[in-house]
Amino acid sequence: MTFVWISIGAVLGANARYIVTRAMTQWLGPSFPYGTLVVNVVGCLVMGAIATMVTGRLVDRPEVVRLVVIVGFLGSLTTFSSFSWETHELFHDGEWVRALANIALSVLAGFAGVRLGVELTPRLVGAM
């Protein structure tokens, strides 16, 4: 059942991301990634609320809620919420150096990965 719960949330999260991104582009234009910003911020808000309820056992069936909402829905909506929650937990646990390292490494390595993909892809698939 684990994969079923995750899949249900993932389908809903992916579609929510598409709908929000499309709506924000139509509303505010394509000059800035407003949709991504909105899903990341809203995803972080929801992550904070749901993770607090799950870890505090404030919801019935916390494992199902975790699988559907956190892993499935928020995992498809935005992985930024997972990154933000994990960084929050490091700060909360007093692991300031690890938290700052997670921020720096995630942002810089993510950007480097995108750049590497942009540079290597034309070479791998032929001149574009």
What does this structure look like?
The protein has 128 residues and is mainly α. The chain has a domain at 2-77. Helices cover 84% and strands 0% of the residues. It contains five helices and no strands. It has helices at 2-28, 34-55, 62-77, 80-92, 96-125. α2 (34-55) packs antiparallel against α3. The longest helix is centred in the last third of the chain and has 30 residues, at 96-125. The radius of gyration is 17 Å and the shape is globular. The model has no long low-confidence stretch (mean pLDDT 90).
Summarize the structure.
It is built from 5 helices and no strands. It is mainly alpha-helical and 128 residues long.
List keywords for this structure.
128 residues; mainly alpha; 5 helices; globular
